[in-house]
Amino acid sequence: MRNAARIILESTFTESSTMFLLQINGTLKGLTPGKHGFHVHERGDIGNGCIDAGGHYNPRGQPHGGPDDLQKHVGDLGNIIANLDVTFKRLSLIRFHSIVGRAIVIHEGTDDLGRGGDEGSRIAGNAGARVACGVIGIVVSFGILCR
């Protein structure tokens, strides 16, 4: 992850082979205490302080929402804290609406999950400035190729 405040995210993304479930396990270091908005953004361009990543990934044209809402952006992952162990429904690394090559962004404040009652809430959850971002990619391990 790239940022000015030295926030470091070490994580593993694991996708279920039978359901549309994506589990993310990891540890965040350098993040201020409390909840922080966590989203997949449109582009894997993390320049200009993460601004070049664009808006939340929203291929279905839905309003902003929480991770378990039926109507939400594909990239709406809700909020995280420093220790990350979450599973997201209807999110995929390699299947329909893949998030590989897109940016993952951590925001300064809490995402109100589209329930704030104003335009900022309906678009992006009023989570504040982008404090860290990185590009989602696949790393191939060449440990054991055959037995």
Q: For the largest beta sheet, what order do the strands appear in spatially?
A: 4-3-6-7
Share of helix, binned: under 10%
Computed structural class:
mainly beta
Strand content: 25-35%
By CATH, the superfamily comes out as Superoxide dismutase, copper/zinc binding domain
Query: What is the average per-residue confidence, as pLDDT, rounded to a whole number?
Result: 80
Count up the helices.
Answer: 1
Sheet of most strands: 4 strands, antiparallel
Helices and strands, in order, run as: EEEEEEHE
CATH C-level label:
Mainly Beta
Q: Outline, from the CA principal axes?
A: globular
Please tell me how large the radius of gyration is: 15 Å
What distance separates the N and C termini? 35 Å
CATH architecture: Sandwich
> What is the tally of beta strands?
7
GO molecular function: copper ion binding; superoxide dismutase activity
Enzyme class: oxidoreductase
Domain Superoxide dismutase copper/zinc binding: 12-136
Cofactor: Cu cation; Zn(2+)
Describe what this molecule looks like in 3D.
- The structure is a single chain.
- By secondary structure, the chain is mainly beta.
- The chain has a single domain, classed as Immunoglobulin-like, CATH 2.60.40.200.
- The protein contains one helix and seven strands, in the order E-E-E-E-E-E-H-E.
- The chain has a four-stranded antiparallel beta sheet with strand order 4-3-6-7, with no helix packed on it. A three-stranded antiparallel beta sheet has the order 1-2-5, with no helix packed on it.
- The longest helix has 6 residues, at 119-124.
- The chain is globular and about 40 Å long.
- GO terms for molecular function: copper ion binding; superoxide dismutase activity.
- This is Superoxide dismutase [Cu-Zn].
- Its cofactor is Cu cation; Zn(2+).
